[in-house]
Design brief:
With 278 residues, this protein is α+β, with helices and mostly antiparallel strands. The chain has helices spanning 117-132, 139-160, 166-182, 189-195, 200-211, 215-233, 238-244, 250-261, 265-272, and strands spanning 5-6, 12-22, 34-36, 39-53, 56-60, 64-68, 73-89, 107-111.
């Protein structure tokens, strides 16, 4: 069995919640891990808890927006007193919004300035209203512009907290967008440098300034992340996973995986496999 994929009934879904509580065990009603076939924004007005993205635990904090990109393996494990909203949307409804926000690994959490929640919630409410009403010739454009406003605000708030590295951050955003699209086909750092029209050394240096990781390391991280996801959350064979992540030789894939995680794929799966796939 492949990893369960969660899809939207349409191109947009808005869910609000007040004083919600979630347990931390599948058998007590929490959802099993699932891969998103959409992007998700989680606005947390109040409450605490945690969720798991790609097997890594992230806290849920009041006054924040968390961005979870398409393809992530996600489960909400536990929350207490959670109030806010979730906005889920397909890639095609993005207009000129910052694609890097939804293209990175894991979850990106951004603090919302104290003066902004009212505008944020009003825009989310407007999106919910558009999603609920019968579509007309202007519905798509309105949804695109409202959603773009949300994402551009999130980018503004992110940039305000990272003002010292605008040029490097822009390069990283372009790289992440390209990497998400091409990581299974291209493992060569030189290919990304050429595609971005940046000298290979300059690209690696700029990425390292932002992330502490070189171009090659970031590519390897992304490829191995996908492999680890599939080993933990799917029933695909090691050979199928090797093929899906761009390796023609299963033995070479196994060696690369062991270098990254300290275990060969099969032992890693045996230890880390999620209970719902056993």
């Amino acid at each position: 069995m492949d990893l369960p994929v969660d899809r939207l009934p349409g191109s947009l879904q808005v869910v609000t919640f007040a004083d919600a509580a979630f347990g931390d065990a599948v058998e007590r009603g929490a959802r099993a891990p699932h891969r998103h076939d959409y992007h998700e924004l989680l606005w947390t007005r109040s409450g605490t808890g945690w969720h798991s993205v790609d097997g890594e635990r992230f806290p849920v904090a009041p006054g924040t927006v968390t961005v979870i990109g398409r393809g992530r393996v996600h489960v909400f494990e536990r929350a207490v007193g959670l109030s806010g909203a979730v906005v889920r949307f397909e890639s095609e409804v993005l207009l000129d919004a910052p694609a890097w926000l939804v293209g990175g690994q894991g979850a990106l959490t951004v603090e919302v300035p104290p003066s902004e929640p009212r505008a944020l919630e009003a825009t989310i409410a407007a999106l919910a209203g558009e999603a609920a009403r019968p579509a007309d010739p202007r519905s798509g454009a309105i949804i695109q512009h409202l959603l773009s406003a949300l994402l551009l605000w999130v980018e503004r708030w992110y940039d305000a907290a990272h003002t010292e590295r605008h040029d490097e951050a822009d390069l990283y955003r372009r790289f992440v967008t390209l990497l998400e699209r091409e990581f299974a086909r291209h493992h060569d750092a030189a290919w990304y440098a050429e595609a971005l029209a940046v000298p290979a050394a300059a690209l690696s240096r700029g990425l390292a300034d932002v992330t502490g990781r070189t171009t090659k390391q970031l590519i390897t991280d992304r490829v191995m992340l996908e492999a680890a996801r599939l080993l933990r959350f799917s029933d695909l064979s090691v050979g199928e996973i090797a093929y899906r992540t761009g390796f023609e030789d299963q033995l070479y894939f196994s060696r690369a995986f062991k270098r990254r995680y300290g275990e060969a794929p099969t032992p890693y799966r045996n230890v880390h496999r999620h209970p719902s796939n056993v």
